[in-house]
Design a protein that fits this description.
Elements lengths: L5 E3 L7 E3 L6 H7 L4 E5 L2 E7 L4 H4 L8 E4 L2 E7 L2 E6 L4 H12 L3 E5 L4 E7 L3 H6 L16 E6 L2 E8 L2 E7 H19 L9
Antiparallel strand pairs: 1-2, 3-9, 4-7, 4-8, 5-6, 6-7, 9-12, 10-11, 11-12
Helix pairs in contact: 1-5
């Protein structure tokens, strides 16, 4: 699959990922504060351990779980496969840092061009996701360190909780479709009813 991530060159000269959903910013802003949709550019690496020690060196989570270490989040994708991501760092630097931490005990590859990260927040986040997701995302069933790979409106996503809602990671080729679906699903919650006329 082609890398559809556009990269920007900030003042410090380092390439940083830019979300392919930037052009949705104005539409997302119209839904706030009832519904918060926020794309976040993150550097991503796929990790496949080759040595048992790598699990501890990289703080790898158990099945269907995630770990956070500072700015780095690592999510379980399957047996012996993980996705790590962090904001505010160039993809090649993040991949190199994770490879250094692995100390030769894991295969580490830059995957920043594969997925877009989108945070869904606000008081209606769980309800909106329930419109298109078959799994129960309520706190009693889906805890703060749980991770699921599921379908949301027929688009494959990785979902986990963040302090202000849910983080979704979706393939870049489906990012526009999912953004349009989320905006449509969220619109009814963002509409403020007109005040009743005075008698």
């Amino acid at each position: 699959m082609a890398d559809t991530t556009v990269h920007s060159l900030p003042d410090n000269g380092a390439l940083e990922p830019v979300s392919p959903l930037q052009h949705w910013s104005a539409r997302f802003a119209e839904l706030a504060p009832a519904v918060l949709l926020r794309p976040t550019s993150v550097a991503q690496t796929v990790i496949r351990p080759t040595e048992p020690a790598a699990a501890e060196q990289l703080d790898l989570p158990g099945a269907c779980r995630m770990t956070r270490d500072g700015d780095t989040t690592v999510v379980w994708l399957g047996p012996d496969e993980y996705l790590a991501y962090a904001a505010g760092i160039a993809p090649h630097e993040f991949a190199a840092a994770m490879a250094d931490r692995a100390q030769g005990g894991a295969y580490v590859a830059d995957a920043s061009g594969q997925r877009t990260r989108l945070v869904v927040g606000g008081p209606h986040a769980e309800t909106i996701l329930a419109h298109g997701c078959a799994i129960d995302l309520s706190p009693r069933s889906f805890g703060p360190d749980d991770v699921a790979q599921t379908l949301l409106a027929q688009a494959a996503v990785i979902v986990h909780r963040v302090p202000d809602g849910f983080a979704l990671l979706v393939r870049n080729s489906y990012a526009d479709y999912l953004a349009a679906w989320l905006v449509d699903a969220a619109t009814e919650y963002a509409i403020v009813p007109a005040p009743s006329p005075l008698p």
